[in-house]
Amino acid sequence: MNAKRVVIVTGAARGIGQAIAGAFGDSGDTVVLVDRDPDALHSTASALEQGGADVMARIVDVTRSTDIDRLMSDVIEERGRIDVLVNNAGKNTYFDAVTMTEDDWDSAMDVDLKSVWLMARAALPSLIESRGSIVNVSSIHARLTTPGMFPYAAAKSGVEGLTRSLAADYASAGVRVNAVAPGWTQTRLVDEWAARSDDPDALSKVLRAHPLQRIATPEDVAAAVEFLASPGARAITGAVLPVDCGLSITFRVD
After folding, report:
1. Do the bridges between strand 240-243 and strand 84-87 make them parallel or antiparallel, or are there none, so unpaired?
2. Which of 15, 87, 175, 220 would be a feasible disulfide site paired with 216, CB 3.0-4.6 Å?
3. Identified catalytic residue from 152, 155, 181, 244
4. Residue 110, by phi and psi: left (phi above 0), alpha (psi -120 to 50) or beta?
5. Active-site annotation holds for 152
6. 67 pLDDT band (50/70/90 cuts)?
7. For the chain, which residues make up each domain, given as ranges?
8. Is the pLDDT score of 191 beyond 50?
9. In a 3-state reduction of DSSP, which class is residue 196?
10. Contact residues for 191 (Cβ-Cβ < 8 A; gap 6+)
């Protein structure tokens, strides 16, 4: 893997984004941490710096093009290039299609879909120069979903369509665009869900539904992202790589 690439990771302050940033930092890359939570961002940046990583940390609202343009200018000015963009920022949304307001819809799409386009649009000129790559974090919900996930599933389906379109449009410029699609992942959200459940066996049932009898860790997702951004994936573009411990290959009736 090439050392000292410049890698931008959105939603980098915790969870999957934090693991992704750590993986690139451990590989010797310069990592640009992007998040809206200043305390969590500072904590993650400090931890990576203590581990020897070259880090930039920026508080950015990825739904605002002015914030994004300022970010890209800072990165180019301070590090000279952009080699990898990881669009990880997102939020879970749970609405009923009838009662959901237009403002709720716009907010959900802004974070989970529009931000991916805005970040790609701003980074692509530099990525073309570096013949770099984009890795978008989608979700298993883009193709397989459950009741109560509206409109999250719609947004993530859009992320995968955007991934394919950008891959096709910029392949001739040497830019690869791929996505990972995590399923259940051991994050704070899963812990909180299990704690709220009335079923003490809820998490065990989830584990049994997975062929590998486990759910992914943030580090599992980070490893997949790092691979797709690496020279080892130089023949891969427009792909969506599931990171779901086999859940999406099953047809369960129990």
Report:
1. unpaired
2. 220
3. 152
4. alpha
5. yes
6. very high
7. 6-185+217-249
8. yes
9. helix
10. none
